């Protein structure tokens, strides 16, 4: 995690330099403010990662002699196929379309979104007694 913290801190230095250069050159307040906010966010993330890296064990990316296989392991379980993202996508598209066309379209989109979320959360749930 040390390398990620350093990357974000160096990115913050770069964004700060670009914010000062952009602010002096363009005299445009909105873009300058956005760049200074991006600098602040980058420094916060970099500080958090550097702060956390001191308290956890060194990972493979912190070792210059490490191989790719050193971080190998179980990543997690990923569903090979699922219809739930399709329900969420259609419901989300209808919800955003409802903002442009009319709020009445939310009556059709909210059930699709809820069905998709409920189905995704409980897709592989088979009950408490069957997990043993």
Which characteristics define this entry?
132 residues; 4 helices; 64% helix
The chain-level mean pLDDT equals: 89
DSSP strand (E) fraction?
A: under 5%
N→C terminal distance: 36 Å
Give, in order, the helices and strands: HHHH
Largest sheet: none
Outline = flat
Count of DSSP helices? 4
Question: Could you name the ranges where pLDDT drops below 50 across 5 or more consecutive residues?
Answer: none
SS-derived structural category: mainly alpha
Helix content: 55-70%
Radius of gyration: 23 Å
Report the count of strand segments: 0
Description of the structure:
This protein is an all-alpha fold and 132 residues long. It is 64% helix and 0% strand. The chain is built from four helices and no strands. The chain has helices at 2-26, 29-53, 84-101, 106-121. It is flat. The two termini are 36 Å apart. The model has no long low-confidence stretch (mean pLDDT 89).
Helices and strands in order, then pairings?
Blueprint: H1 2-26, H2 29-53, H3 84-101, H4 106-121
Outline of the structure:
It is built from 4 helices and no strands.
């Amino acid at each position: 995690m040390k390398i990620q913290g350093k990357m974000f801190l160096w990115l913050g230095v770069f964004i700060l330099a670009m914010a000062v250069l952009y602010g002096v050159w363009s005299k445009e307040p909105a873009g300058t403010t956005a760049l200074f906010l991006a600098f602040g966010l980058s420094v916060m993330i970099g500080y958090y990662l550097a702060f956390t890296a001191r308290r956890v064990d060194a990972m493979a990316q912190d070792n210059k002699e490490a191989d790719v296989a050193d971080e190998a392991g179980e990543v997690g379980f990923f569903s090979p196929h699922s219809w739930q993202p399709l329900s969420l996508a259609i419901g989300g598209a209808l919800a955003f379309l409802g903002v442009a066309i009319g709020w009445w379209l939310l009556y059709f989109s909210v059930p699709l979104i809820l069905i998709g979320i409920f189905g995704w959360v409980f897709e592989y749930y088979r009950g408490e007694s069957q997990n043993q």
